[in-house]
Amino acid sequence: MLSRREFLAASAGAAVVATGAGSAFAADAPKPVALKKAIKYSMIAGKLSVLEKFELAKKCGFAGLEMDSPSGVNREEAKKAAAATGVVIHGVIDSQHWGSPLSHPDEKVRAKGFAALETALDDAGFYGTATTMLLVPGVVNKEVSFDQCWERSIALVKKAIPLAEKAKVPIAIETVWNNFILKPEQMVKYVDQFESPWVGAYFDISNMIKYGVPPAEWVRKLGKRMLKFDFKGYSKALAKEKGNDGAGFGAKIGEGDENWPEVLKAVAEVGYKGEYFTAEVGGGGEERLMDISKRMDKILGK
After folding, report:
1. Which are the contacts of 265, defined by CB distance < 8 A and separation ≥ 6?
2. What's phi and psi for 195, nearest 5 deg?
3. N or C terminus of the chain: which is more exposed, having fewer CB within 10 Å?
4. Tens of pLDDT, residues 194-251
5. Confidence (pTM)
6. pLDDT higher than threshold 80 for residue 1
């Protein structure tokens, strides 16, 4: 198995694929990476079959979907729908990481969380096209200190690395409001200590705005460690106006504080290989999904 150091060295010189992305890039800037739009499968609303949901995603211009695990969706149907429509299942989300965190004080709860992680990796491997399995590694709260979250989650992620290698799907550690890994330096340290290409970062660009470090700086510091990235919209002014940090997510895609031209420039600089950028906002039917798609296009300058 390659060490992370070997993996990064091997991929460092890979070329960035070019695509048009508007006037956000200067002539001497790195050429923008070809990005494919994606959404979470759970965002597609309505009494539709699995195939119909994939067809709607395609109609609205999305090239990829991320599936929850478990989700109640028959994975055989999802795989067939992906093949029929060409909409790629590019990732899987461990949907149990909040309910049974790997950092929990109770060993039985941690064991349940690990079993869910194992299932998510198995699902990701089954689809055959997933290139990440998104994981929130733990939660810091009154019962769990930062150090405890760090040590407990690391122990179980290490245990899962052989499973990730078998599935051929890396574990991507997400940045969320869990009072853990709130600075890019922390994520770099967390990922690098595994010394494995089977663990990387899943950067939610909008999630981290309230903590003060600009998203583009996160991207540059994470570099090749950033396997995928999510986005929505977050406005500090809106959060302040409403007196609630969560209200900042009321900003529409493209109207928050992300500074997308600089983010996309940084994504190009680090040679992002994840292909997809995935919206994580309130979903809906065709009208809502079309609006999300158009907003994503506007960010890319299409």
Report:
1. 24, 25, 29, 30, 32, 216
2. 50, 50
3. N
4. 999 999 999 999 999 999 999 999 999 999 999 999 989 999 999 999 999 999 999 9
5. 0.89
6. no
What is the per-residue pLDDT across 10-27, written as a single tens digit (0 to 9) for each?
444 333 333 333 434 444
Closest CA to 97 of 173, 165, 197: 173
Exposed/middle/buried for 67, CB within 10 Å: 0-12, 13-18, 19+? Answer: buried
Does the residue 25 lie in any domain?
no
CATH number of domain containing 40: 3.20.20.150
Strand partners, 284: 44
Q: Are strands 132-135 and 171-174 parallel, antiparallel or unpaired?
A: parallel
CB neighbours (10 Å) of residue 211?
12
Amino acid at 260: W
In total, how many domains does the chain have? 1
How does pLDDT run across 86-113, given as a tens digit for each residue? Answer: 999 999 999 999 999 999 999 999 999 9
Domain-located, residue 174:
yes
Task: Establish whether the linkage from the previous residue to 70 is cis, with ω within 30° of 0.
Answer: yes
Radius of gyration of the CA atoms of the chain, in A: 19
Instruction: Assign residue 29 a region (left: φ > 0; alpha: ψ between -120 and 50; beta: otherwise).
Output: beta
Domain of 82 in residue numbering reads as: 4-14+30-297
Residue 208 counted as domain residue: yes
Residue 109 phi, psi (nearest 5): -70, -40
DSSP structure class, residue 72: S
